[in-house]
Write a structure and sequence with these properties.
The complex is a heterodimer of chains A (about 110) and B (about 120).
Chain A (H helix, E strand, L loop, with lengths): L2 E5 L2 E5 L4 E8 L3 E9 L6 E6 L5 E4 L2 E5 L3 E6 L8 E9 L6 E2 L3 E6 L1
Parallel strand pairs in A: 2-11
Antiparallel strand pairs in A: 1-3, 3-8, 4-5, 4-9, 6-7, 7-8, 9-10, 9-11
Chain B lengths: L3 E4 L2 E4 L5 E7 L6 E7 L5 E8 L5 E2 L8 E7 L2 E6 L8 E9 L6 E4 L3 E5 L1
Parallel strand pairs in B: 2-11
Antiparallel strand pairs in B: 1-3, 3-8, 4-5, 4-9, 5-6, 7-8, 9-10, 9-11
The chains are: A mainly beta (about 110), B mainly beta (about 120).
Chain lengths: ~110, ~120
């Protein structure tokens, strides 16, 4: 059974204070690892897909990296508008379903 | 691209009534859509997989007679909560699958907040 564990559960940063969110996973035959952002009362917004260890992707202040056991979402010089819950999910084997972690609630204070 | 809409965004109904939620892919065709449920401060729980032109596949523990899913076209899936009760109150989110070479990406709708009185 695929499993995804995200840490920390919650993270408070000051504006401009860079940090990283962690996503550890176990999956049989990784097809893709996904990062989503979810604002309160909204559906998840797609950020990145990573396919293989060593891959990196960037979007504005966010950078996602992938190893064989975990993924990191690095946030550089965050702004208050980056405050949200960040969800990690994996897709494995021949199954196109997503297995989600519980998310990291990021709060960026001005 | 890859925009998914849901309607309504919020619905309040009386116990015992049925509620229909629509999920549309606006700028692409989706042979597969998914329905999730999310409790406060919890992650997404997959309820069922909706395939165009065939019966939905429900996850273990989800009552198929209570949560009716219809995927009548390549851009529309509907979830009907039948004989709703207060315990069905939740945030329901759909997603549509975009097939890729290695992995399929799911794009999510904005969600529907259901409150059953």
């Amino acid at each position: 059974e695929d499993q995804v564990t995200q840490s920390p559960e919650a993270l408070r940063l000051q504006e401009g204070e860079s940090s990283s969110l962690n996503c550890s996973y176990t999956v049989s035959g990784l097809r893709g690892l996904f990062w989503y952002r979810q604002d309160p009362g909204k559906g998840p917004e797609f950020l990145f897909t990573l396919y293989s260890a060593g891959e990196e992707k960037e979007k504005e202040r966010l950078k996602a990296t992938l190893t064989k056991k975990e993924s990191f979402l690095h946030i550089t010089a965050p702004k208050p508008e980056d405050s949200a819950t960040y969800l990690c999910a994996v897709q494995g084997g021949s199954n196109y379903k997503l297995t989600f972690g519980k998310g990291t609630l990021l709060t960026v204070n001005p | 691209g890859a925009v998914v809409s849901q309607h309504p965004s919020r619905v309040i109904c009386k116990s015992g009534t049925s509620v229909k939620i629509e999920c549309r892919s606006l700028d692409f065709q989706a042979t597969t859509m998914f329905w999730y449920r999310q409790f406060p401060k919890k992650s997404l729980m997959l309820m069922a997989t909706s395939n165009e032109g065939s019966k939905a596949t429900y996850e273990q523990g989800v009552e198929k007679d209570k949560f009716l899913i219809n995927h009548a076209s390549l851009t529309l899936s509907t979830l009907t909560v039948t004989s709703a009760h207060p315990e069905d109150s939740s945030f329901y989110i759909c997603s549509a699958r975009v097939q890729g070479g290695t992995a399929d990406t799911q794009y999510f709708g904005p969600g529907t907040r259901l409150t059953v009185l």
